[in-house]
């Protein structure tokens, strides 16, 4: 069977050789029955990422890799990954996420044939949205209010090939949310048809290493860059819809969860000075206990936070392994 022309997977990466190795080991058994291409944009990695990719290309012929001679901003690498795919639909996904077999099969079954098409398909993240049934959106402000926070996840959006050349990529570069800006820029220009499907869900990839995340940029990204990004959206989006989207990302994404805050403190990126800088916006968008918890963490030694975090991670992974042994189809 030849290369699948209906659907492809696009993957941007940088210096994540161990993760890419695990990613391809996980994905190849899922996609090989449909000969789905995996298009990797390598952001001039300095580790052995290319060697890992070459190893898996000898196992699965539909892995393609392109990239840059020098490292570029992540938004440019994401854009390049998306443009590598020639398929009718492209699922853009980060290397920290997994597409379960049932989600892939469901998507392939709902993608229309012939002249009918979806401009975008939005997938769920670990089933977090439970109160919106599968539906077709045609109103840009409604998409912004309901789904913008979900679209921030680099793995929840499937693009039709016709929209990929249309986005104003440069407008949202270096915002850290370029892939989100591209979607909403397109929606403001088209009489679009977007499918939201809670039945298509991605899950976290249980990699050998914990994903490092935004590190020192974590708090500035969510408290400064996200509001700034929202302000860049076209004027066709209503002020009230922008405000709803701005708050929903902080409230629903679970980025302000206790483990993330513990991680940030353990890395030295949360202290009394930083806490005071963001205290006002935390009070606006988060429950009172989170504000108290963040303040409490500023008094905890970083080493103690790191120790607690490692123990929590060990317990979580062991718990997952035990549950997985009894239920091989478990996905979380």
Key attributes of the depicted protein:
Spore Coat Polysaccharide Biosynthesis Protein SpsA, Chain A, 12 helices, 9 strands, Nucleotide-diphossugar_trans, 332 residues, alpha/beta, nine-stranded mixed beta sheet, Glyco_trans_2-like
Question: How would you explain this protein's 3D organization?
Answer:
This protein is an alpha/beta fold and 332 residues long. It is built from 12 helices and 9 strands. It is globular. The chain has 2 domains: 7-204, Spore Coat Polysaccharide Biosynthesis Protein SpsA, Chain A (Alpha-Beta Complex); 226-326, no CATH class. Helix 1 (17-31) packs parallel to helix 2, helix 7 packs antiparallel against helix 8 (239-252) and helix 9 (258-266) crosses helix 12 (302-326). Strands 1, 2, 3, 4, 5, 6, 7, 8 and 9 form a 9-stranded mixed β-sheet that branches. The longest helix has 25 residues, at 302-326. Helix 2 links the parallel strand 2 (37-42) and strand 3 (63-67).
